[in-house]
Design goal:
Radius of gyration: 15 Å
Helix content: 25-40%
Number of strands: 4
CATH architecture: Alpha-Beta Complex
CATH class: Alpha Beta
Strand order of the largest sheet: 3-2-1-4
Distance between the termini: 57 Å
Largest sheet: 4 strands, parallel
CATH superfamily: Spore Coat Polysaccharide Biosynthesis Protein SpsA, Chain A
CATH topology: Spore Coat Polysaccharide Biosynthesis Protein SpsA, Chain A
Number of domains: 1
Shape: globular
Number of helices: 4
Structural class: alpha/beta
Amino acid sequence: MLDLLQIHKPHLSIILPTYNRANFLGQAIESVLEQSFTDFEIIVINDGSTDASEEVINSYRDSRIVYVRQPNQGEYSATNTGLRMAQGQLVTWIHSDDIMTPQSLSARVTCLNDNREVDFCHGDIAVSGQ
């Protein structure tokens, strides 16, 4: 019977490493959850934050969020943890103080799915004044 069950794996894995970014983290997560493309998992790696980052992460109840806490080892280690955990056919990332526009993931997935000779794509950034 087990072989008849299909376990859904997301098309896209989004890696979000964070360290002491509680003030920005909620906006980053929300910008991912509000995407027009929805077949994803978001892997949030808390790299030993000492601020309220864990509380921010735990405030979300979405089955697409995978949360991992590790001792502080730096952004590259946290990103590599996310890469090892990724279940998607495609992988992207977002910094914990960034915000994605609502069509960002859709544009990336379309680019990669429609152009099989393309292995990498990226989006532009918009910088707002403080």
